[in-house]
Amino acid sequence: MQYRIQRNCDKIDWQTVCRVLQEAGLAIHPIELTRKAFENSYCVVFVFDNDLLIGVGRAISDGAYQAAIYDIAVLPIYQGKKVGRLIVDEIHKDLQKINIILYASPGKEPFYSNFGYYRMLTGMARFNNESKMREKGFTE
Ligand SMILES: CC(C)(COP(=O)(O)OP(=O)(O)OC[C@H]1O[C@@H](n2cnc3c(N)ncnc32)[C@H](O)[C@@H]1OP(=O)(O)O)[C@@H](O)C(=O)NCCC(=O)NCCS
Fold first, then answer.
1. Is the N or the C terminus of the chain less surrounded, counting Cβ atoms within 10 Å?
2. Domain N-acetyltransferase, which positions (predicted)?
3. 47: phi > 0 → left, psi -120 to 50 → alpha, else beta; which?
């Protein structure tokens, strides 16, 4: 299947982005904050099937040697069709020779192992909503 890939935020419907994130089970934020997060990111990926937004992803970076990936999400009915791979491959194109960190949704670590990611031994996080993140399995 040939999907359309958009690498900028032009004419993106942020409500739809929120819906994709929500349907994929990721944390969602108010529409304006979501727009700000994507617009302020180093790179973004939006995947469309015709006019339907089916997948999103983004990374923040200094553009020199460090980056972090966030919000990789594929609509449930499109999961398992290589859309997630497409999104991560696109992000990697912009992050060559740059260290990339991420925290996977609990249980989704094997998806990232496919791309050469390893568990970090010293990764630490200071989450805004610490107790909720612990409940969800992100911290000890
Ligand atoms: C995780 C997610 C992004 C993967 O996207 P996808 O389109 O379903 O995955 P793909 O079809 O592109 O799979 C790519 C590769 O990863 C593997 N893979 C996909 N999901 C996997 C999983 N949960 N565990 C292990 N491997 C997985 C596939 O087998 C495939 O391997 P291959 O290319 O060697 O055959 C998608 O399922 C999703 O949106 N999930 C809900 C939200 C989420 O958890 N996002 C990640 C946040 S950290």
1. C
2. 4-135
3. beta
Superfamily (CATH H level) for 4-102: Gcn5-related N-acetyltransferase (GNAT) (3.40.630.30)
Residue nearest to atom 16 of ligand 1 (CA): 111
pLDDT tens per residue, range 73-109 = 999 999 999 999 999 999 999 999 999 999 999 999 9
> Strand, coil or helix: what is 126?
coil
What is the distance in A from the centroid of ligand 1 to the CA of 121?
23
Name beta bridge partners: 9.
none
* Residues of the chain scoring pLDDT < 70: none
| Residue 1 pLDDT | 72
